[in-house]
Amino acid sequence: LHGEADNLMRNISNNDSPRPKVVDPLTPATFVDRIRVPVYMACQWTDEQTGGHCANLADEFRGTKRKWFDFTNGTHVDSLAPEQFNRWYDFLQIFVAKRAPITFSAAIQAGAPVIYEAAMGISGVTLPPDPIQAQPTYELARDAFLELEPIRILFDNGAGGSEPGQPYPGFQESFTRWPIPGSKARSWYLGRDGVLSGRRSARHAERFRWDAEGLPPTNFTGSTSTGENGLWTATPEYEWKQHPKGTAVSYRSRPLAKDTSVIGAGAVHLWLRSSKPNADLQATVTEVRPDGNESFVQSGWLRAKARRLDARKSTPLEPVLSLRQRHFSPLPRDRFVPVTIPLYYEGHVYRAGSRIRVTVSGPNGEQPIWAFAKTRPRGTARIAVLSTRRKPSRLTLPVVRGVDAPTELPPCPGLRGQPCRDYEPFENRTARP
What we know:
This protein is of the alpha+beta class. 13% of the residues lie in helices and 27% in strands. The chain has helices at residues 4-12, 20-23, 82-97, 102-120, 138-146, and strands spanning 39-44, 67-72, 151-155, 171-175, 183-190, 195-197, 204-211, 248-253, 260-264, 267-274, 280-288, 293-303, 337-342, 346-350, 355-361, 380-387, 394-400, 420-422, 429-430. Strands 5, 6, 7, 8, 10, 11, 12, 13, 15, 16, 17, 18 and 19 form a 13-stranded mixed sheet that branches. Strand 5 and strand 6 form a beta hairpin. Helix 3 packs across helix 5 (138-146). The longest helix has 19 residues, at 102-120. The N and C termini lie far apart (49 Å).
């Protein structure tokens, strides 16, 4: 199960006339608890076609104890990357065919390079050794599979091969459940002069010109599979551009003292004022690396008039928008109101010495092949973001202790589904608080 349908149906509700009675019954999160058979699901945080929201399904499969989930960065095709393919093959052999995976393992190992050359346009890709495929009997293979932890995070996909962008993780970790045990909400506050701080700051505000056409709607031109400059190939050429001066606000933390592992969703909480009653907003989290590069990690989006949260479903680490039309309300011109931009999921280790950066802007240029509809709010607007000790604007992420990267910084470019570019500082413009 790829998890694609759940993300699709959730996005249907992101228009101006959501119909929960139609959408909810078609959303897998509302019915996967009735599944009683074994389940294997794989998906990518940065899937360019469906986004990374499928992780919300992991704790909804309450009808079966036999369930396994793989999550990683990558493109739409990376659900079939070598590590995931091995597990999928083992799963099908054990729970569907009822036979030992060793039966046909030699054949799939031999065919892998040809398959990956065709599917990803990447040569030299083979399947890694798999202990379950080495088990001589069905019973031994099944028992070994049943010992696997249900949640596996494959970090730094693209950094584990002999060349940048090959579909191998840099490292991986397994966990007993989702959300990851020990996840804690950690906040960084939007401070003066573009500083992202662990402490709340005195009253101040920055502004930007919201521009529906400020950047191209997408950041990629080329084949959406394996053709010329193919998106599924090792290192496609993204056109990931910096926001023009005055069209965003950006905040950067101090260098991290140690590796900081984030697994889950999170949000950007803002106190916001707008000259127009509606605006599509985008929040993007990146890693500013000590080598002078900047790597995309994740984004989130919000149609501001649909900003009200569902209090029953929301948690500090996973805010859920109501998206009911009766809850829509315009942004006021004369005062600041709370606005939460939910982030898509991520599984990323920000390395010691790196800085975490969050940028708030109009919804342009952060995705390779999808964008807001042409019916979105048009023109420009004056947006101001306030932060005080009592009304702090902040970035909140689920930090997991005890997960450190055993590898060096991945190559730039190299991480699959995560563009990388030279870092450029950004100067915010002050506003009347």
